[in-house]
Amino acid sequence: MKRKIDRKMITFLMVMALILTASCGDVNVQAAAKKATKKEAAKTTETSSFYKNKQKIYLDSSWKYADHAKITSGYAVMYTAKKNRKDIVIAVNAGHGTKGGSSVKTLCHPDGSPKLTGGTTQAGAIQAVAVSDGMTFRDGTAERDVTLRMAKILKKKLLAEGYDVLMVRDGKDVQLDNVARTVICNNVADCHIALHWDSDGLRYDKGAFAISVPKGLKKKKPVSSYWEQHEALGAALVKGLRSNGVKISGTGATAIDLTQTSYSTIPSVDMELGNQCSDHSDRKLEVLADGLVQGVNKYVKKHIKIAPLRDYKKNGGSK
Fold this sequence. Notes:
The chain folds into 2 domains: 1-48; 52-303, Zn-dependent exopeptidases (Aminopeptidase). The chain contains 6 helices and 10 strands. By secondary structure, it is an alpha/beta fold.
């Protein structure tokens, strides 16, 4: 009888042990799952909200082509949308505005090959002016001042649409050459739009146009992998300007070999919004900005399906 009781007790204890083990296992699994979920949620939150409003973004020396830049002490500024944030960063690059930029030179192309078309730097040159001073409007206004005004108006409208905006030049001067500006955009933004007015010497306003990619440049790296995106962005912006009543020059595109294009690894375009005879009043700039925003919306809708903010290196890009 005693032996039977012992056996029953042993059986009972074994069953209880199994139940307790299973329960503990479930608890451990649930705890682990909860911990993993919290960790993943924290990670997601950190990624989606990493950029802070007015965050300064410096050139990271580890970024591809960063070693080609010569003027690098400045910084871009990130502005984040307050409502309906799309997690898409549009880089707005106000052309010119780098003191001393015209006395420094950088390679026209990453591979050191000669420039294909003329402009500020003549065709055949190996090195280009790091940042030119820009032209002067017929009324005496400096182009660099107008591009900055234009950039600020465009920034405001893009933010209202839910885009985050990387202001490559946020003040009268930024110590970043064209290579540095482009490399920062490559690593932080989803699209790069440079703002300029053409110095063509004409005595009339010929209208706006996008700088497209010359045939020979399409074969060079990294352009060979991105030129179609560059031209698609330019075409969308021209279409947006035209639909908003802005005069367009010719077909809306002119092929020029630019430093910006040569180093870009994201959709990138130089928009020439007129020339030295163009109206550059605030009212006109508002019209241009509305057209550009329409163009950005067209491009994003068609070409950017998923555009999460890029992970930005905490110990290198921001200070």
